[in-house]
Design brief:
Number of strands: 4
Radius of gyration: 23 Å
CATH class of the largest domain: Mainly Alpha
Order of helices and strands: HHHHHHHHHHHEEHHHHHEHEHHHHHH
Largest sheet: 2 strands, antiparallel
Structural class: mainly alpha
Strand order of the largest sheet: 1-2
Distance between the termini: 49 Å
Number of domains: 3
CATH topology of the largest domain: Hypothetical protein af1432
Strand content: under 5%
Shape: globular
CATH superfamily of the largest domain: Hypothetical protein af1432
Helix content: 55-70%
CATH architecture of the largest domain: Orthogonal Bundle
Length: about 450
C-alpha cells in the first residue's frame, strides 16, 4: 500500500470530518468543476468548431479517455489480480481525475496553437500544452490561494507526462522563428517552433514537491532523458497512473477520431484498405473469430463494410475496437525502479498495439496532415500570434481586468518573463471562438461594439 504522503496536498488542506469522499473523489470533483475543464467544450480536437455538431471536442474526448482509463483499471484488476502491481491500481475517481486533466493545458486551435504560443514565448521560457496542464492544476485554478486545484501528490504524478523541464530538453539549434523569403507573409516555421514534450520551468518547484518522497536513485532515474539528433530531448519514464491515461488517450484518438472522420466523409474506404490491411488488423480479426464465431465468413470484409456503411453497424465495430484494446492491456515492469508507481506501467499486447498504431497513422496521414486541416491550422496560428502580440504591445491598456492585475504585479516586480507568462496564460486559456472573436475585435475593419460578447 502507498504511504499517506502520496495523498498529501501542497497547501495542507484537509476535508471536513463529515466529508465522505476519498482523496480521488475530491480531485475528480475539482477537475470537472474547474473553468479549464469547461473550456474544453470550445477547443478543437482535430476539426474546427462550427464545421458540424457531430464530431468530438477536447471535452468529449477527455470524457471518453476517462471512461476508457477506468475500463483499463477494471480489466487489469480482474485478469491480473495476483500481479504485484494490482494493489497499486488507482481507484475509479483518481484515474478519471488524471484522464479528465490530460488536455486542460492545450490552447485554442490544438497543436497549431501550441506551436504558435511557443514561438510567442521563445524568449520567456516557451510553451507546451502538457506543461500548461500542470501549471493550471498547480497554480492557476481557483480552489486554493496559491496552489491551483491543490490536487494530491499522486494525481499530479499521474498528470506529469514528461518529468523533465523545457530548458533541459530544449535543443538550442531549434530556435522558434518564421520562414524567411516572403515579401508579405509571416509564415511560422513549425519544425523549429514545435516545443519539446516537457513541463515548464515555472513549475520546477511543483515537480520537486511531487517527486520529493522518492528515493534519490528513483528520482534520478525517473528524470533521465535522451538527446535526439536534430530534435529536442525526449523523456523516458512515466508513472503507472500516467501510463494508463496514455494508453486510454491513444485508444480514444485512434478509434473515436476514426469514427468522426468516417462519419463526416473525410476518409475513403479505398485508402482505409490500403493502410489498414488484413495483416495490420490481424489481432482484431483473430479476436472477432474467437468472440463471434460464425458471424462472418470474412471478418475483414465485414469490418470494412460496417465502418463505411450505416451508423448502427459502424458504432458496433467502434465498440468492438475499444473492447479489443481494453482487454489487451497488460502490466510491464521497469526493474530499475524501487517505488511501485514507477516500477510498473501499463501497455498493450504486441498485436493490439500494432493495430492501434496503424489506426493512429491513418488518422494522422489522412486527416490531420490533409491540406484542409492544415490550412485551418495555418490560419489559427496566425490569429494566435497576432492576438498575443497585440496584448504584448500594450498589456495594461488591452488586457481584461484579471490578467491585467496579474500583469501589473509582474511588472512591479520587474519580471518581464512573468509578465509575458501572464499574457500566455490568458491566450492559452481561450476557446477557439473566444480567440477568433478577440482577433476580430482587435483587427477586423468594422467598428465593433463594447457590447460584443467575447
Amino acid at each position: 500500500m502507498l504511504d499517506e504522503v502520496w495523498l498529501a496536498r501542497r497547501d495542507g488542506w484537509q476535508p471536513l470530518q463529515e466529508d465522505a469522499r476519498e482523496a480521488g473523489d475530491i480531485d475528480y470533483g475539482r477537475v470537472i468543476h474547474s473553468a479549464s475543464f469547461r473550456r474544453l467544450q470550445g477547443k478543437t480536437q482535430i476539426l474546427n468548431l462550427g464545421d458540424s455538431d457531430f464530431y468530438r471536442t477536447r471535452l468529449t474526448h477527455s470524457l471518453e479517455v476517462a471512461q476508457i482509463a477506468a475500463g483499463v483499471v477494471r480489466v487489469l484488476a480482474r485478469k491480473c489480480a495476483d500481479h504485484p502491481a494490482a494493489p497499486l491500481l488507482p481507484d475509479r475517481s483518481l484515474i478519471q481525475a488524471v484522464a479528465c486533466s490530460h488536455d486542460l493545458g492545450h490552447p485554442p486551435f490544438g497543436h497549431g496553437g501550441e506551436v504558435a504560443l511557443n514561438y510567442c514565448m521563445r524568449s520567456h521560457g516557451g510553451f507546451e500544452g502538457n506543461g500548461q496542464t500542470l501549471r493550471l492544476l498547480a497554480r492557476l485554478e481557483s480552489f486554493s490561494r496559491r496552489d491551483g486545484a491543490n490536487l494530491t501528490r499522486r494525481t499530479l504524478l499521474g498528470v506529469l507526462k514528461y518529468p523533465v523541464s523545457y530548458s533541459e530538453l530544449l535543443n538550442p539549434s531549434l530556435e522558434p522563428g518564421m520562414h524567411a523569403g516572403y515579401a508579405r507573409l509571416a509564415a511560422l516555421d513549425g519544425n523549429c517552433s514545435t516545443p519539446p514534450k516537457c513541463h515548464l520551468d515555472t513549475e520546477r518547484d511543483v515537480v520537486a514537491w511531487v517527486l520529493q518522497p522518492l528515493s534519490d536513485a528513483d528520482r534520478v532515474a525517473f528524470t533521465r532523458w535522451e538527446p535526439l539528433p536534430g530534435q529536442h530531448g525526449r523523456t523516458l519514464h512515466k508513472s503507472l497512473d500516467c501510463s494508463i491515461m496514455d494508453v486510454a488517450d491513444d485508444i480514444a484518438y485512434g478509434v473515436h477520431d476514426l469514427e468522426d472522420a468516417v462519419a463526416l466523409g473525410l476518409v475513403s474506404e479505398g485508402r482505409f484498405r490500403e493502410i489498414l490491411t488484413r495483416e495490420r488488423a490481424q489481432s482484431f480479426l483473430d479476436a472477432l473469430r474467437v468472440n463471434y464465431p460464425g458471424e462472418a465468413s470474412d471478418p475483414y470484409e465485414a469490418m470494412v463494410q460496417a465502418l463505411f456503411g450505416g451508423g448502427r453497424e459502424r458504432k458496433r465495430y467502434i465498440s468492438r475496437f475499444v473492447h479489443h484494446f481494453l482487454t489487451a492491456a497488460r502490466f510491464e515492469e521497469k526493474p530499475e525502479f524501487q517505488f511501485g508507481l514507477l516500477r510498473y506501467r501499463v501497455s498493450l499486447e504486441a498485436g493490439a498495439r500494432d493495430f492501434l498504431k496503424a489506426l493512429k497513422e491513418f488518422i494522422m496521414n489522412e486527416v490531420i496532415r490533409s491540406a484542409t486541416v492544415q490550412q485551418l491550422e495555418f490560419k489559427g496560428q496566425g490569429m494566435v500570434i497576432s492576438v498575443f502580440e497585440a496584448f504584448q504591445s500594450d498589456p495594461l491598456r488591452l488586457l481584461p481586468v484579471e490578467p491585467r492585475k496579474r500583469y501589473a504585479e509582474a511588472a512591479d516586480s520587474g519580471d518581464a518573463a512573468q509578465g509575458n507568462r501572464v499574457i500566455c496564460d490568458y491566450v492559452a486559456g481561450m476557446t477557439d471562438s473566444h480567440l477568433l472573436r478577440t482577433y476580430e475585435r482587435l483587427f477586423a475593419p468594422r467598428m465593433g461594439s463594447i457590447f460584443d460578447r467575447l
